[in-house]
Every structure is written in structure tokens, then in C-alpha cells.
TrEMBL record:
Lineage, broadest ranks: Eukaryota, Viridiplantae, Streptophyta, Embryophyta, Tracheophyta
Signal sequence interval, chain numbering: none
Protein name: Protein MOTHER of FT and TFL1
Matching Gene3D superfamilies: PEBP-like
Species: Theobroma cacao (Cacao)
PANTHER family: PHOSPHATIDYLETHANOLAMINE-BINDING PROTEIN (PTHR11362), PHOSPHATIDYLETHANOLAMINE-BINDING PROTEIN 4 (PTHR11362:SF82)
Pfam family, one: PBP
PROSITE patterns: PBP (PS01220)
The family this protein is said to belong to: Belongs to the phosphatidylethanolamine-binding protein family.
Length: 172
């Protein structure tokens, strides 16, 4: 069941966004029919709507999902690291984020320059979180500090994909 964290180390997800952890939950993420695997390339035009996320686990367990971009506004100068795209809490195990409480509405990737990493991090909650305050800004979010503030501990699953600005099609 456990997935290797090696791609997360190579992709600098472990280090830039989260600390070393052992995956204990299986999370599958799809944009349309496209299965998101670590380091795959996904076009921003296919990410306008939230991904379909399935979380295994028992229905009496609750999870929090965070999606961030640590490469904002550009990978060479990530002065807004991390840009938070989505936060959902109180997701029952064996279900998906539509069953949880959306703390921050989904915002699809729109990388302005370079190849950006988009990371979906899943935490197991110790109990219901209740009212969680929305971040004051999407910029300069910290997944680590957010997890620390809510006593979420280390992630239980993480997957990331790459995306870059799509060329504008020329119409005649």
C-alpha cells in the first residue's frame, strides 16, 4: 500500500513544501481521465475544475487536503512561495473532497512563467477541525505552518504534477 517518497525527494517537494514522511494512505487524483502521477505534465487548460480525488481509509477518519504551488511567481524566483490553490478539511476516509468542508475555494493552475509544481498534500486529522479560518492571502502560504497550527502532523499522502503556461493559439 505504501508508495515510495523518492519522486517527492527528486522533485524537491520534500524539502520545499513538506518534511520527510511515510505515506500511509492511498490518494488518487484525476483531471478528467488523466491520472496524476508524481512529476507528470498536465496542461493548465485541463485543470480549470477541481480534480477528482479519492481517499481510501475508514469513514470514521477525517482528512485535510491542501493544494499549493511552491514556484510562484517563477521557479527561479519563488518570492510568493507557496501559492495556495485549494484547502478542504473534514473529508471522511473512503470518500472525496466533495464530502468535506471547503476552506479555500479551488483555483486552477495559471503558471505565468516556467514549469511550476502543483502539490496535493493529504493530512489525517486527529478529530473534526470545526471552523477553520481562511488564509488572509493565497500568496506566501506555508503548508508546514498550516499543518502545525491545526495539529495535523506529517502528511499521509502527497502527489504532484508539473504545468507550464500554454501557448496562445493563433486564430485566422
Amino acid at each position: 500500500m505504501a508508495v515510495s517518497v523518492d519522486p517527492l525527494v527528486v522533485g524537491r517537494v520534500i524539502g520545499d513544501v513538506v518534511d520527510m514522511f511515510v505515506p500511509t494512505v492511498t490518494m488518487s487524483v484525476y483531471y478528467g481521465s488523466r491520472h496524476v502521477t508524481n512529476g507528470c505534465d498536465i496542461k493548465p487548460s485541463t485543470t480549470i475544475n477541481p480534480p477528482k480525488v479519492s481517499i481510501n481509509g475508514h469513514s470514521d477518519e477525517l482528512y485535510t487536503l491542501v493544494m499549493t504551488d511552491p514556484d510562484a511567481p517563477s521557479p527561479s524566483e519563488p518570492s510568493m512561495r507557496e501559492w495556495v490553490h485549494w484547502i478542504v478539511s473534514d473529508i471522511p476516509g473512503g470518500t472525496n473532497p466533495t464530502r468535506g468542508k471547503e476552506i479555500l475555494v479551488y483555483m486552477g493552475p495559471r503558471p505565468p512563467v516556467g514549469i511550476h509544481r502543483y502539490i496535493l498534500v493529504l493530512f489525517q486529522q486527529k478529530g473534526p477541525l470545526g471552523q477553520v479560518q481562511q488564509p488572509a492571502s493565497r500568496a506566501n502560504f506555508s503548508t508546514r505552518l498550516f499543518a502545525q497550527h491545526l495539529n495535523l502532523g506529517l502528511p499521509v499522502a502527497t502527489v504532484y504534477f508539473n504545468a507550464q503556461k500554454e501557448p496562445v493559439s493563433r486564430r485566422r
